[in-house]
Task: inverse folding
């Protein structure tokens, strides 16, 4: 068992006692993870080569700006991918939508260079894409990560017009742990306060939030990691500063604690943005229930939500890392208004290749 399990709330402490695996099974789990990681690295070797070739050799210099410093802290660097069709440096247009992407990696791993093909793919579809590094555990904790995304959004708002982006069309997107961080950031800074706490700082206006396969209830995710036999090695617990803070850094729990029926507040300096929650049905790393639970709470807490302000979609046969791979491998183009329901090509819209098009069409419409 973990050393600080007594910091868990009583109900989760008892669930943990009943769920935790014996040491011998955990050793088998770790061995299996090592073998799967080796297989995974072999499988992605061609993607890695493709990424390296584009990033270091074949890209157009003026449409991929590397290692921009967006904040004062370690790892506060980003790459900006700009649609080459925009000719932004010639026509001086500043009207392209913008995505700030925050990578996953259990709050302890990951790098912007792993998402070269994602930045490339989104920029090819007309979106200025800012892929960021941020501080990770053990050198940083969740507070540092939240500070980093705040710095990134501020930098983007103040500078993105220099790269052809529209500062009033900024979307946050995060996969896995990155999806948790952006959701926590928005819930704590753009909604009504808990216990009449004053929120006077004006934040960057955001058009929408994309949590992709994100763990949005930390206590629940801790139990899920326990069932998998990895809770003792997961970076999540130290990143959240220990079990006693799990609820404080759970977007689902924070939402529940807001007493008012609606979390929207016209008195807030910045309005609450739209949420577009996307998840794979076969995700064995972060279960779909994480997103459906968060969605159901938001449904109750938002005043008269519509598909344009709150959207959930689950993708059949999509696992955790498949989500990113299917976006970067997608060459299918479907033009449709996703908020008007399905169109004539239901087979295409419901398969894995529709993830990228759903993202593009949400932003477009």
Result:
């Amino acid at each position: 068992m973990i050393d600080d399990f007594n910091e868990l709330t009583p109900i989760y402490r008892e669930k943990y006692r009943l769920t935790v695996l014996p040491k011998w099974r955990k050793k088998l789990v770790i061995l299996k993870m090592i073998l799967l990681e080796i297989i995974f690295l072999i499988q992605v070797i061609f993607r890695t080569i493709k990424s390296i070739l584009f990033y270091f050799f074949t890209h157009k210099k003026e449409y991929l700006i590397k290692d921009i410093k967006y904040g004062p802290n370690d790892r506060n660097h980003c790459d900006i991918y700009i649609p080459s069709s925009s000719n932004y440096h010639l026509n001086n247009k500043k009207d392209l939508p913008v995505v700030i992407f925050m990578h996953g990696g259990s709050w302890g791993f990951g790098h912007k260079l792993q998402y070269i093909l994602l930045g490339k793919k989104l920029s090819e579809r007309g979106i200025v894409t800012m892929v960021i590094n941020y501080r990770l555990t053990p050198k940083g904790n969740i507070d540092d990560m939240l500070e980093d995304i705040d710095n990134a959004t501020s930098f983007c708002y103040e500078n993105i017009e220099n790269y052809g982006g529209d500062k009033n069309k900024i979307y946050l997107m995060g996969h896995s742990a990155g999806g948790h961080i952006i959701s926590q950031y928005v819930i704590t800074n753009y909604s009504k306060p808990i216990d009449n706490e004053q929120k006077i700082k004006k934040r960057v206006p955001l058009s929408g939030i994309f949590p992709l396969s994100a763990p949005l209830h930390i206590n629940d995710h801790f139990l899920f990691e326990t069932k998998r036999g990895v809770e003792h090695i997961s970076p999540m617990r130290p990143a959240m500063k220990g079990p006693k803070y799990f609820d404080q850094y759970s977007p689902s729990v924070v939402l529940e604690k807001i007493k008012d029926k609606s979390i929207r507040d016209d008195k807030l300096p910045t309005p609450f943005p739209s949420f577009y929650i996307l998840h794979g049905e076969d995700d064995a790393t972060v279960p779909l229930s994480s997103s459906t639970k968060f969605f159901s709470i938001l449904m109750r807490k938002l005043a008269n939500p519509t598909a344009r302000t709150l959207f959930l979609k689950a993708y059949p046969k999509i696992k955790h890392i498949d989500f990113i791979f299917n976006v970067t491998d997608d060459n299918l183009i479907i033009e449709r208004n996703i908020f008007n329901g399905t169109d004539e090509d239901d087979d295409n819209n419901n398969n894995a290749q529709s993830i990228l098009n759903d993202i593009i069409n949400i932003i477009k419409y």
